[in-house]
Amino acid sequence: MSAAKRKLDWTQTWRVYRRLLGYLAPYRWVGVGTVVGLILDALGLTVFVQLIKPMIDGLFVEKDPQTIFWLPIVILIVAAVRGVASYVSDYGMGLLGRGVVKDIRKDVFASYLRLPVAHFVQEASGQQISRITYTADQVAKASTSAFKSMLQDSLLAVGMVGTMLYNSPYLALALLLMVPSMVGVVTWISRRYRRMSRRVQDTMGSVAEAVREVVDGHREVRIFGAQQLEQRRFDEVAERTAKFNLKISSTAALSSALVQTTAALALAGIVWLATRPWEIERMTAGTFTAVMFAMTGLMTPLKRLTNVQGDIQRGVAAAEELFEVIDLPPEPAGGKPIAGRCRGDIRFEGVSLAYTGATMRALHDIDLHCAPGTVTALVGRSGSGKTSLVSLLPRFVEPSEGRILLDGEDYLDFELASLRRQIAWVGQHVMLFDGTVAENIAYGELAGASEADIIAAAEAANAMEFIAQLPQGIHTLIGEGGKRLSGGQRQRIAIARAILKNAPILILDEATSALDTHSERLIQQALRTLMRNRTTLVVAHRLSTIEGADQIAVLEKGRIVERGTHAELLALGGHYATLHRLQFHDRPAD
Fold this sequence. Notes:
Elements: H1 3-21, H2 28-50, H3 52-61, H4 65-114, H5 117-122, H6 125-167, H7 179-216, H8 218-223, H9 227-274, H10 277-280, H11 285-326, E1 346-353, E2 363-370, E3 375-380, H12 386-391, E4 401-406, E5 409-410, H13 416-420, E6 423-426, H14 437-441, H15 451-460, H16 464-467, H17 487-501, E7 505-509, H18 517-531, E8 535-539, E9 551-556, E10 559-564, H19 566-572, H20 575-584
Helix pairs in contact: 1-11, 2-4, 2-6, 3-4, 3-11, 4-6, 4-11, 6-7, 6-11, 7-9, 7-11, 9-11, 15-17, 19-20
């Protein structure tokens, strides 16, 4: 590796590590106490090693009464100081570590809430979950335990070297055997750890993704007999993760062995230098023992300093990944607020849409006017662009070309939160949250709704017939994702949520697809009431549900190929008439 590349690596590492240490700022006073504890602990051990010389020479050689009296007292005082300092530093590091993990998790989660929808489409959810769980913990080791080791062990190393120089600069020459070797070991270790840590983080995301898929799709796994297939897939991911972790363990073991070998050479050098004729006659046993203890004491912090490179590089690699997410640009949310309630006049003018990385456009040159208070139905075969078109309105995606006008103004000029307050959405795939029925109906900004309003919305959505049967009614917990409810029940909760929002624009994306015939008829009646004086866009597969729409737009391969009322399109005898005939006239007899 070139010198320029090495310099770049260290510059990048320091830049990331310095930003990471910034998370310690709110805990500065805890940090100050921790650093003081680390300094006292390292100083206490240095003093203890320095006491070895008077212990050997004063107690056993000279048998000095003063030394015999005071030395045990001094040793007890040093031990007490070290005990208190060690407790303070360890406890302080615990507080700092948990605080940093908590804060960085909050920042990553906050970033997820700000990111555009396209980000979640492009990246596996397992990777996103792994960042909050596994990756954030790696950061804690770099910002706290690794920092503790660097500071404390560096102080210990300085103290041991100082002890050697104070007692015998001549014997300290043995350090010359260690320094070049240690620099080489640390440089090699840090590069290897950084490379391996990135790979481990990626594989941990794959592990989380594999588990999530099997947990979410446990019914499909069983009904299609895919247990062995999923086990093989997980085994491959687990083996790959274990392989990279083993490489890290191998690197740590090799670094320890190299440090021990280097230290052993230095110890041998001390013995050789001490036994030279010009030195052995004038050196006391206390001096030699103190230097030997100092060199031996130097081995442990040097070994930890070498190994701590692993925690630092893992933490820096983890922090780098987390900071990349935190620094991602959020959804463009600026603009002017919409005062009160919009009229709901929607106009698509030459709108095209191309998803990132896609080779073909999802929508081509869409022109469509949805007058205030009217119902516009979007029909077409699967993949024709219906959901893509309605996803443009709340700006889950934005047009690649053309523009969308709301009440005559470009909707990109409006504040994003203000725009979304004008829209209620019921999607084909209902998302409920772990909480009560009431909390899921009065969700988000609707949380201040009264119990009477919640019940009224549930009744309008034909949901009270099953809610009333629940143990605590609307206050019944429904479990993660509403798993204690059936698919139709979940969909009615989502419809009740949209009814409660009472927005001027309503989007129904296959909103009744999971309902039985009886419930669907009641829901359609409730929706017809809800649609009054609202601009409604309905993505429909069942054509019977949109026969009364003010206009129907037929999409084919991202283009509007027909537009008109139900009767007009049937009379036209084109795409819509074909779809209608397939649903109502060509059904096989029961």
